Amino acid sequence: MFFKKALLAAVGLILACGMGATAFAQEPQPQSQTAPSHEGISDKERIERREQRRQRLMQRLERRDDRGLMREGYRDRLSELNLTDDQRKQRQAIIERRLAGTKQQREELMRLREKRSAGTFTETDETRVQALRQEIKTAMQGVGEEMESVLTAEQKAKLEQLKAERKQRRELRLKERQERRRSTPTIL
Questions:
Q1: CA dist list (Å): 79 to 21, 87, 109, 151, 155
Q2: Average of per-residue pLDDT across 111-129
Q3: CA neighbor of 159 nearest in space, from 95, 93, 92, 87
Q4: Handedness of CA 138, 143, 146, 148 (dihedral sign)
């Protein structure tokens, strides 16, 4: 009889331990995969990594036959013009020359952006950002005219037609947006 009770107690104890272990194993465990922190990485290393990522992106864009360097709308318009290989090369040279001319400004903008994210951005930095953006905009103004000089008369006519169509679509979208705003009741 004692042996029977001891055996039942041992079996009960084993079952209880087994069920407790199973329940513990099924509880949700805290996630050990957290986002990597920037602790242990110096600012210089972080900036170098960011610069390497930016360079890889630029290389990828260059490999895509210069399509990533231009705005999509302009690229779409140019694709309808059926450019020759020579025209494409000239266009690429224009883009590269213009980008090379603004490289210092873009690099300084990148440094100022990093300064902003680090929290050390000042009012004079904001003024400098505006000036750099204006310099880049001014330098890039002539790209369209310079690219159009590469086109034949038929291609220029087609480009003007495409620009007019795009302007009409833009004006139509603006008008539709304004009508939606007028018809939508404002909540005070």
A1: 66, 12, 31, 12, 11
A2: 89
A3: 87
A4: negative
